From TrEMBL:
Signal peptide: none
Highest taxon of the lineage: Bacteria
One Gene Ontology MF term: oxidoreductase activity
Protein name: Nitroreductase
InterPro entries: Nitroreductase-like (IPR000415)
Organism field: Candidatus Magasanikbacteria bacterium CG11_big_fil_rev_8_21_14_0_20_43_7
SUPFAM superfamilies named among the record's database cross-references: FMN-dependent nitroreductase-like (SSF55469)
């Protein structure tokens, strides 16, 4: 697969040993933690975060770049904030691993301030989301936390078929249950075939809506890119298992340059459905409220779970369509039997085809572009 530029160099970030880390200056340390945050997943790989470091006080300020919020698929800004929650969790895990106590203060952003805005690259539109203060502590990280810290460097979203008959081992499920903060979110695990089938149907409907809705599909086309793209943001088709020709065709068809063949649309909506039908594990995160803080908590919890899976060699993928297509969201919540707000739906399992594990990572902006 062609990777003609430096857009993938973020994945060569080393995991510093404690001795290597202790030789870094305060500025280098904080930049390193921002780099870890930058390896987090984000909706459509928009990387909607911006970081400001204050080495005198060992503080990182995390903001949303409102220009990055996608108007069709992220109308409320929820997906962008969940992404930022995941980035915050990377900082928390990375900093605790290197011997810091971490205090996270929410900036209590208002929901109206995180919605998409008309795109204007000239106008920087930063919304403070949280400040993260680091102070030295002596506690060594647990084995599970060290596993999560290591997983930051290898993690990737795996949109592939998982082995239906290979369940997640109980000790991993226990580790997951013990790492979620049940004061801030509710974590539902679904492993029974009946509910999995129902969710698969919802997924097909959500994907069908996306593909048949011009605004949604054009936006997806702008972000689902050719494999040799020079863009540091967005999703090269290889991450969906598409070869160079398929990726180019899908990008052009969704963008409206060439007609979208009916079978392309059908294949798109059936793929998600099939993946869910075959997955041994579905996780859903809901919250009591539906505020920006709830979205941050959901993003943090999701990423903690995702890194736990990754540390045990278990893949995961996200399915935001069910959350974002409103009618389906409500029907799904009823199936789940909850009155809480649906935030994140993902699946996890062991990849069926070994070669899928060798798919390239997704690109990242240079670190300088996300610092202010
Ligand atoms: C909030 C959020 C929602 C996402 N929704 C989807 C989704 O619906 N379908 C999908 O295939 N990937 C989804 N992703 C995965 C992103 O596309 C992926 O994180 C991004 O392309 C970067 O790739 P990486 O995570 O492998 O580094 C989502 C990620 C986040 C954080």
């Amino acid at each position: 697969m062609m990777q003609p530029n430096n857009n993938y160099s973020a994945w060569s970030t080393p995991q510093y040993t404690h001795t290597q880390f202790s030789a870094l200056s305060p500025t280098e340390r904080l930049r390193y933690f921002c780099q870890l945050a930058h390896l987090a997943p984000s909706t459509h790989n928009t990387q909607p975060w911006k970081f400001h470091i204050d080495p005198d006080n060992m503080v990182i300020e995390v903001s949303l770049d409102q220009n990055s919020v996608l108007p069709a698929s992220d109308v409320a800004g929820r997906q962008s904030i969940i992404s930022i929650g995941a980035a915050i969790e990377h900082i928390r895990i990375g900093a605790e691993y290197e011997g810091y106590a971490v205090t996270i203060h929410s900036a209590s952003a208002d929901k109206t301030s995180v919605r998409p805005v008309p795109k204007d690259p000239q106008h920087v539109s930063r919304v403070p989301i949280a400040t993260i203060a680091l102070s030295p502590q002596m506690n060594a990280p647990s084995h599970a936390e060290s596993g999560r810290a290591g997983a930051i460097f290898s993690r990737k979203i795996m949109r592939a078929e998982y082995k239906r008959d290979q369940p997640i081992p109980n000790h991993v499920l226990e580790e997951i249950q013990s790492c979620v903060d049940t004061d801030t979110i509710t974590f539902h695990t679904l492993t029974d075939p009946l509910r999995r089938q129902a969710i698969a149907e919802f997924q097909a409907q959500a994907d069908g809506f996306v593909i048949n809705n011009k605004k949604f599909s054009r936006e997806l086309g702008d972000w689902l890119l050719e494999n040799d793209t020079s863009s540091p943001v967005g999703m090269p088709g290889a991450g969906f298992g598409l070869d160079d020709t398929q990726a180019m065709r899908m990008h052009r068809a969704l963008s409206g340059d060439i007609p979208l063949e009916p079978e392309d649309g059908l294949r798109f909506s059936l793929a998600g459905k099939e993946y869910i039908e075959k997955t041994p594990f579905i996780g859903v995160i809901t919250t009591k409220g539906d505020t920006v803080d709830d979205w941050i908590h959901a993003g943090r919890a999701f990423e903690r779970i995702a890194l736990t899976f990754e540390s045990h060699g278990i893949s995961h993928a996200m399915h935001a369509g069910i959350v974002e297509v409103r009618l389906i969201n409500r029907m799904f919540a009823a199936t789940l039997g909850t009155l809480q707000s649906l935030q994140v739906l993902f699946r996890a399992g062991y990849v069926k085809k070994e070669e899928d594990l060798r798919r390239p990572h997704s690109p990242r902006l240079p670190l300088e572009a996300v610092l202010y």
